[in-house]
Amino acid sequence: MKAPRATLALIACVLVAAAAIVDGRKLEQWVPVAGGTSGPTLRTTVNIGFTQVPCLAFSPLVQDWTTSNSPTLYTATGNTRPPFNETEDLISRICQDPLAAGTDIASAVQAGGQEAQTALVALLSADCPPNNEAGPASYSAAIDQVNPSGDPADLDEVSSWFTNLAAAADDVGVPLCASIAVVDPTGGVVEAHTFHTSGIAAPAAESGSASPERVRTSAVFGQEGVTCDVYDSESDSWVINTTAPVYGTSGSANTPPATLVAALGDQVCNDPLAAGPLLRDAVQAGGEQAQLWTYALLNLGPNCPDPSALSMAYSVAIGGINDGTTDSLDATTEWFTNLAAAGDAVGNPLCASLAIINEATGEVEQRDFHTGGEEGA
Q1: In whole angstroms, how far apart are CA 77 and each of 8, 47, 81, 171?
Q2: 208 CB contacts (<8 Å, ≥6 apart)?
Q3: Within the chain, which residues score under 70 in pLDDT?
Q4: How far apart are CA 198 and CA 34, in angstroms?
């Protein structure tokens, strides 16, 4: 089985976000074609976004999944939280044996409802260092159970499974679109179907011409010191830079009042999807509001009963600032500047980074926003 091409999980301390239209998390199933040209093959992919997501279509021209120039962007409408104990148990199984957990995930999605919701949230939350591909491996094992050989005869079963997966994503508030293509031996598409969450994003304002540049972001948080991630254009992902400077904070921490912090921490833990916009607005405002929310997120968030709460709150916040294009570059720059200043003030080392990627030339410009103390300097 070929390894999945993208990581599904958001690691609790290293958060990556951008608009789904340019930075969706994609899960693909690699299906071997018996004999190479024996007949049509059923292929699948799943595209997942933070705030909105386009469906992908199989392109006969490039023989890969692509997005149209002006796709419909889908959002998710729910905020259901599946039972924590069941989610945590499945995360543990994903980390211990991703392939065996895939069988459980296949059955859970097939059952639909709360079981499917639990399976999806577990996949999104699985953080299993050093195996950061555990979640995608479990997904690949799951879809292999449903579509084991790429036989178009399994179309109805795969369609039913993706219908349940999209419904679960809608329920838990995760924009998602699953796509199916039946591809003939020449690479042509015989039949295609999509299964997506129910909301539709408002169309973006016309800007005259599409920009060749897109913007991706990363943020690294720590207790003692952090290094800034580096954008790797070959893998189109953020990687850890082991030789980079380690940043701490520049002075004594200004710890916010415990009662206020506790209240905000409860919001992050109990309803991260609702806490995200509040975090966004507080950091955007800067000053004491930014300090209070940053401290609550980074000091109480890691201790939430739901291990995905910190990631989800942050993802919603940055997703409301960075739309993945240079149109929001100034807003993202200001937000990261305020975030780094807040982290420095309350004693939480962090480095937020953005990469401006020129699709036409391949050039990348990276900007880092970090707390003030450089260890060893």
Answers
A1: 21, 17, 13, 7
A2: none
A3: 1-37, 68-70, 202-212, 235, 373-377
A4: 36
Q: Are residues 192 and 222 in the same domain?
A: no
230 and 185, same structural domain?
no
pLDDT value for 2: 25
- Report yes or no on whether pTM surpasses 0.90: no
The boundaries of the domain holding residue 141 are: 14-200
User: Hunting for tokens 């699953």 — which residue is that?
Assistant: 178
Phi and psi of 84, rounded to 5°? -60, -45
Burial of 37 (0-12, 13-18, 19+ CB in 10 A): exposed
pLDDT score for 293: 95
pLDDT of residue 57: 86
Question: Do residue 159 and residue 56 come from a single domain?
Answer: yes
172, 200, 228 - which closes a domain: 200
Residue 2 forms part of a structural domain: no
- Residue owning tokens 């199989």: 58
Task: Give the strands of the sheet with 213-221, arranged side by side.
Answer: 14-17, 213-221, 350-358, 364-370
